[in-house]
Each structure stands twice: as C-alpha cells, then as structure tokens.
Amino acid sequence: MARIVMKFGGTSVADMDRIRVVARHVKREVDAGHEVAVVVSAMSGKTNELVGWTRDASPMHDAREYDAVVASGEQVTSGLVAIALQHLGINARSWQGWQIPIKTDNAHGAARILEINGDEIIRRMGEGQVAVVAGFQGLGPDNRISTLGRGGSDTSAVAIAAAVKADRCDIYTDVDGVYTTDPRIVPKARRLKKIAFEEMLEMASLGAKVLQVRSVELAMVFKVRTFVRSSFEDPDAPGMGDLLNPPGTLICDEEEIVEQEVVTGIAYAKDEAQISLRRLSDRPGVSAAIFGPLAENHINVDMIVQNISEDGSTTDMTFTVPSGDVDKALKVLGDHKEQIGYDVIQNESGLVKVSVIGIGMRSHAGVAASAFRALAEKGINIKAITTSEIKISILIDGPYAELAVRTLHSCYGLDKS
Length: 417
Ligand code: ASP
Ligand code: MG
Known about the structure:
Layout: E1 3-8, H1 16-31, E2 35-40, H2 46-57, H3 63-70, H4 72-87, E3 92-95, E4 102-104, E5 113-116, H5 119-126, E6 130-134, E7 137-139, E8 145-147, H6 153-163, E9 168-173, E10 194-196, H7 197-205, H8 213-222, E11 226-230, E12 249-252, E13 265-281, H9 286-296, E14 304-306, E15 314-322, H10 326-335, H11 337-340, E16 344-357, H12 367-377, E17 384-388, E18 391-397, H13 401-411
Parallel strand pairs: 1-2, 1-9, 2-6, 3-6, 9-11, 10-12
Antiparallel strand pairs: 4-5, 7-8, 11-12, 13-15, 13-16, 14-15, 16-18, 17-18
Bound molecules: aspartic acid and magnesium ion (MG).
C-alpha cells in the first residue's frame, strides 16, 4: 500500500470523456489498495476565458475579485471528478482550497502557499475516501480565495503531497515524461527515467514547460518524489499501475539516481536580449547602480558578464533580459545615466540561450570545452557564457538555436538509446 497524489492538468480534464478516463486512472490505484488524493486543474482553456472576462469587466480590476473568478474553473472540475468517481462506486469528495484550508499569503493572483494541514485528508484517506482537491487556489490571510499564478495547480499537487506525506506525486499531463531536450527539435530526444530535482529546476526555468517552476522548488525542498506521466495512455494498459516502474519520468533526489550521466539534458530559452554598457566607470557601487533600478522596475536580469578593466578606470558590462523588457530596461538605464556613469548603451534582441544541464558536471572536467568545440565546428558564434555547478549557458543568435540544440544533444551522446 502506498499513499499517492494524482494531479490532472487541463487537457486531462478537458471534457466529460476525458474526466471519465481520469476516474479510471484513479480507480486503478484505489483498486490496487493505495490511498489516493487527486488534484485537478480547470478544463483546458477555461482559465484563459475567465481571465479574459475579468479584463473585459475592467482592465484595472481588484485582484481579490480576479481570484474569486478564476478559481472557479478548478471548483467545477473537482466536483465533476468526484461525481465521476462516485459513479464508478468509489467513495470520493471534492475539497476547495478554503475548506482544507490551503493557507497562502496575501499576494492575490500570485499567492504562495504558507501552510496546509493534511490531517483531515489523511484521516479520510485512511477510511478509504478519495479527496479531490481543486488545484491553483487557496485561502489568503484576509479570509478570501487566492490563486497561485498560472500553472499553479502543479504547485498545489506537490504541496498537498508534502502535507499528506505521500510516497509519490503523479503529475498526469499531455506528455509522457521529461525529455533530454525538446523532441520537436530533436526527434531522437529520449524520455528520461529519472532526473534530479536540481536538474529539473534548471530545465523548468529554461522553458521546458512540463511543470510550473515553483512546484519543482517545493518538490526539492520537501523531497516529494514527483512523477510526470501521460493521462492519454489507456488507464488499464500493462505497467500503468506498476508502483515501482511505471512509464514516465521520476523527479527525485540525486541519491536515487544510480547511473548518473554527465549531462542530463539540453534546454533553451528564446527571446532573450542582450544589453551592453560600454566604458562604465570601474568603481564600487556601479553594479548596484545598474541592477538596483532594473529590479525596482521588475525587470528580470539573467546572464551578467562584466569585463575586468584594462587600466582600472573603465569597464564593460553585458547582461540579458527577456526581449519584451528591452525598451523598458533601456528607458530605466537612460534615466539613471548620471548615477551609473557609462559612455554608450548597445542592445540586441532575438537571441537564444542554450543550456547544458547535468549534476554529473560537478565531478567531470571538460564538459564546457566539448560544447564550445562542437559549436565552433558548426560555425556558431558564442556571445556570452555563464556557468553554475550543474549548468553551462551559452547565448547565441536566434537563427542558430535549433542547430545548437541538436549539436549539443549529440555531442554529449544523448541521441543514443
Ligand atoms: N488552471 C490554471 C491555469 O490555467 C492552473 C493550472 O492549470 O495549473 O493556469
Ligand atoms: Mg498546467
């Protein structure tokens, strides 16, 4: 017997036929003797529609009322899934965020979960009742419904799994796992059996849109073994109910990964822009003078490269921001020209950041050198490089993105099965 949280995303509950498939997936686990809590998203497209209505009502709407509106999508699916389960003879009930309660902070529209008391759900699971929890929503300190930001039901699922001390959190979605890279670019990309929390965090932050980034952070902190799998498989297909080795990708502690490869995956992020400040005065406080105002204006800066100055008087600073933020960033930097003290600003949009990720890098030399060599052989120019213990990120011109991803994917032997 195990305790499992099963999360179903929007495409998995898109209509009543899909909801009936969800109920069969749940029934399979219940029949196998497991204790089950289910977390659901809204039907696909529903949240967009609800968001659209709030904007239509008023572009400057009250965020608390926005939450009251957009949380309703999950309320509907939680009830429908509970009914579908009851129809199959399973003891089930729906739970809204405020009923558990899933306590969040006051940041309506992008709230963070603070606390969940899982006792009542645990008690009822012990009695054989399936809890069907509305994802994406919670209860703020102002006693009003809050929502967790788009894609937040992944985070709800991982948080519920931590609160009820589940053995595993299964994320049922429209893909069957996490791949070594985007299979649309590299058809030979392989589904990973396992990936470490840290690696998944990098992959998710870099645009592998399988899970909300916040959910991976939570899974890492609370060590929730999180399993990404497809809800489009036949619920009763062989292996689907296999507790130890089901089809999909397990996101887990690195200690659980025995055959660690040096490189696990290649991720990429499009629409990056580069901004360079030339002939900056090289003095204490200059970085603070640049990045302070950018942060105050909510501009997310990513790669930062500063040159060592030749003569101790001036230096160059280059950094990246999302392409959509360039104009705003240039305006902020222009407004602070006096305080910062630079000669000229240059910028370039339409760049791509390609990243090589793997915890095996910590103990292997030469990983970066192989990437640089492989890209050079293809004539791809590198504009900037940053590294961390488990990641090398390379900024290149947009049109080379696919070639670079393919080149790096085969360079580290990820093509072979
Ligand atoms: N329904 C919400 C959204 O579309 C939450 C989720 O699906 O995770 O963002
Ligand atoms: Mg989602």
